[in-house]
Amino acid sequence: MISTHSLWVVRFSWHSSSFWADFEDEEGKMNLSSLKRGIFMDETVAWKVFCLKPLSLGRKCPGDFVPLRFTPAPPIVSCVPASAGTCIQRAPPPTLVRGCTSPRTSPSQASCDKDFQKTILLDPFFCIFVKIKDRMTLSREKTYAHPFVKWVGGKTQLLDEVKKSLPRDFASRRHVTYVEPFVGGGAVMFWILQEYPNIERAVINDINQELVCTYRVIKENVEELIAGLAHIQNEYIPLGADDRKAYFLEKRARFNTKKTTPVETAALFIFLNRTCFNGLYRVNSKGEFNVPHGKYANPRICDVDNLRACSEVLQKVEILCGDFAETGRYAGPDTLFYFDPPYKPITETSSFTSYAKEGFDDAEQIRLRDFCDQVSKDKALFVASNSDPKDVNPSENFFETLYNHFIIKRVSAARMINSDASGRGAISELMISNVVNA
Prior knowledge:
The structure is a single chain. By secondary structure, this protein is an alpha/beta fold. Helix content is 26%, strand content 20%. A hairpin with a 3-residue loop joins strand 3 and strand 4 (45-52). The radius of gyration is 24 Å and the shape is globular. The model is unreliable at 1-59, 64-78, 80-140 and 417-424 (pLDDT under 50).
């Protein structure tokens, strides 16, 4: 759904299933350099806007673009997509006011959004407005669901590698069941269920009760969750730094009482995730969430469109909470398992396995290998991710020994969580599977 605000600017996504993407980035800041193509929308009409830096005369446009000449002094050439054709209009909708929620009022009368007014500065660009769709058609555009939480070890960056690990004929298989016993943030789950409509059924599981509660609320009661998150967001965002920290600690204490309704639990879970340090989820020996407050300028606490899109995807998903081995009953010739367990720590400071108080040690890694053996005997396919100890110790053969009868390959990933920026960068991870025709 598109907001009912009178005027919007959003970043255009070229993904075929994701026409819309919010212009705000993960840190809650807007980036002028990424405003290349977007949408202005008034009460009845959507206008595609192409904002392009002017080119000096004589420069050639890229292959799929054509030159458009303006004749202020001096003459300027800009490039626009060739597909725009005769739809190009050289003027925006009448009386458009930059940074305001209504195109028909002056700045003194309008209620202007401060972040928009401050960061969306079109002056360095020439903007061509193209009338594309009426508002009702636009409102039916589908949002591409993506994880509703930030999650350490999330697999968004490795989706291409996961895809390469699937059978070559996976898209043409029928009656497929997808099972993810360690769902976490759900990057692979949301991607694969939208990428492969031949997956008729999905099962996700996690031992984290609050995370599972949040998935269930999004599936069954997303509108009430949205209302709760919007309330929290409206209270939190206007606060100063000290008051924000106090508000965070108050909500964290409330969350740790374990006496909240499912909807409140889900709202607090998402709020704490979006505002805590680095989006970590860590608990102490009592099972209490203990991650400190983060310092994000404008965190996206209530992402309405994505929550609704996630709810839609989850309608065909069975949601479990328990030990990963409980998903073994779904194994069969038409089943694909994806395992993304808590990774084996490769350094003393790299362990994020305490997202559940039970932990996940080497004995659990061995039990997971045994489970992979079992689902393979049941003729199910599996793909698993894990850390690569050889990244630190070339002589370490833990996984090579453990999974010596399966296929192991190394892929490049980015280490995203480190208090020292110099500790972030490319690392190797393992993809383990029993898929022979990938």
